[in-house]
Amino acid sequence: MSSAFAHRRINTSVVTRPFSWLVVYTLVTGALYFLVTHFPMGTVRIIQPVNIDAHIAQLPYTLAPYLSYLLIMPALVVLGRRHEWLLPAFFAGALASGTCLLSHLFWPTMIERPDSTSQWLMWFYRMDSPLAASPSGHVALPVAISVVLGYLRVRQTWIFALWSLVLAITVLTTGQHVLLDAVYGAAIGAMAGLTTITLTRLKVDLRTMAAILLEWLCIIVTLRIALYVSDWRLYCLAFVIIAARQHALFILYHDATHYHLTRHRGINDFLINLAIGVPGTVPVEFYRSLHLEHHQHTGTTRDPERRFLYHQQPWKFRPLGGKLLLRQLLGDLFIINTLRNLRAYRAAGGASPTMTRPVVASGIIWLTLLSFIAWQTSAQTMLLIALLWFVPLATLGTLLQKIRSIAEHSGGPDVTPGWQEWTYAWSVGSIGRFFIWPYHINLHLHHHRNANHPWHTLPGLVRADERLMDSRTLLFLLWSGSKKNS
Predict the structure, then answer these.
(1) Hey, how many other C-beta atoms are within 10 angstroms of the C-beta on 243?
(2) Which of 254, 269, 368, 378 fits 358 for a cystine, CB–CB 3.0-4.6 Å?
(3) Quick one: how far is CA 135 from the chain centroid?
(4) Are 124 and 252 in a shared domain?
């Protein structure tokens, strides 16, 4: 690692589980590439060559270096798996690839491939779709990585810079792209690299930022497919997926409440308000004081969760009978309990959210984005987007958050012996992580003990001899009748 890199000090430790990152990246980008190359969602625009394209010869033997694109991210992980620079380089590459794929999702493009006498090229043309032509992800990915590694003065920069040049040439000599595709790809790669450098200089936690972008990618793709197919069954599925991913964004929002996104407080609040605070209608500045008070007075009568979150509701931090439990859950699902929360907060003299600079700045960006969407789409589509965002947020999303809250803090003395801290840590599976406990929020006990640790460090705080609650026992905390039937 160079001395220049050491002076810039990225806000992260040496990367853990880099090959897991690679698997996630491959699955996500592979699925999206299959989608955009087989199911174009909109009018496909044919990319026209420019004059210089007519003078570029087809070179069949360049197909092999063209296909080496598939090795870029594996090579990055292998070379950087023990170095801090892997995280920003990987982030930049993923950002570039994701941007290209989203472009293909909303603005499908296609290239008219030239006639070829090469059997290899003709075979490849039959295997690979001519869709997803512009911008070229083949160029964007290595350029983004090269920009970041060059800024960090990493020794391996030359490998990816040379790789960028080779791919920029071979996308043309194989007839897979025209010159403008490569230029646009290089521009996106450069922007992804510069964005990553900016985040790095601001000491933004790139793991959290990557998680935020991944959640939004899931939401955007879900919305795009549901709106394009326009089938009520897809709307129902989108409703569930969006509610779950909104809930996941609020877990990352909870982390930013403690300034774990970045220690630059204004930047921290701006980024998280942009990510979910403003579109989720709860600016982080409003929630922070309540949450920190909750940490200070957990389980007491001064705890905001006891004063506001369960105001005039059946839940009293112990299992409920069937009818009361159903009333509790339906009240959360149908906004009734949310209105009770707000009423209790206002009755206690709670202050309204203030218009801070981070709130105003993120609000302006969202207003601009929504204005652009409204300009590009019909009033009916805008209404559907609003419904598919706000209805899950206010109903199923609220229910998921309430179940998680019950799972985090319930019982107490004479109710759950051995858990005097009134706070739980759970052992959970993939379904539980998707809906209730994303981003290690299942280790809530460890978060309360170590609130200065970000979400991705919590598993390292669990002692080897420590007992975690089995997520299958959650029903015991909710329903008193489950003990009789167990």
Answers:
(1) 23
(2) 269
(3) 23
(4) no
The type of residue at 6 is A
Last residue of a domain, one of 179, 201, 223: 201
Mean pLDDT, the chain cut into blocks of 10 residues (486 residues total)? 38 69 96 96 92 91 96 97 95 98 96 85 90 96 98 97 97 94 97 98 97 98 96 97 98 97 97 98 95 89 89 91 96 96 90 88 97 94 97 98 93 56 88 97 94 95 90 89 60
pLDDT, tens digit (0-9, with 9 covering 90-100), for 429-462: 999 999 999 999 999 999 999 999 999 999 999 9
The overall pTM is greater than 0.85: yes
- The angle formed by the CA atoms of residues 214, 434 and 264, to the nearest 5 degrees, is 45
Which structure tokens are listed for 312? 């005039």
Distance of CA 8 to the CA centre of its chain: 26
Helix (H) / strand (E) containing 45: strand 45-47
Specify the length of the chain in residues.
486
> Phi first, then psi: what are they for 469, rounded to 5°?
-70, 140
377-385, long-range: CB < 8 A, 24+ apart: 381/227, 384/227, 385/223, 385/227
Domain boundary at 175, 201, 227, which? 201
How large is the angle between the packed helices 336-347 and 322-333, nearest 10 degrees?
80
Residue with tokens 């290239």: 111
- State how beta strands 109-111 and 426-427 pair: unpaired
* Count of structural domains, the chain: 2
Q: Are 222 and 238 in contact (CB under 8 A)?
A: yes
Are both 286 and 143 inside the same structural domain?
A: no
What is the residue-wise DSSP string for 458-483? GGGGS-TT---EEGGGHHHHHBTHHH
Could you tell me if residue 364 is inside a domain?
Answer: yes
Amino acid of residue 408: E
Q: Which amino acid is at 243?
A: A
Residue span of the structural domain in which 103 resides? 3-201
Residues 9 and 96 in one domain: yes
Q: What is the DSSP letter of 427?
A: E
| Token pair for 217 | 């990618």
For the chain, the distance separating the N- and C-terminal CA atoms, rounded to the nearest angstrom, is 57
Picking from 406, 400, 395, 398, the residue whose alpha carbon sits closest to that of residue 320 is 406
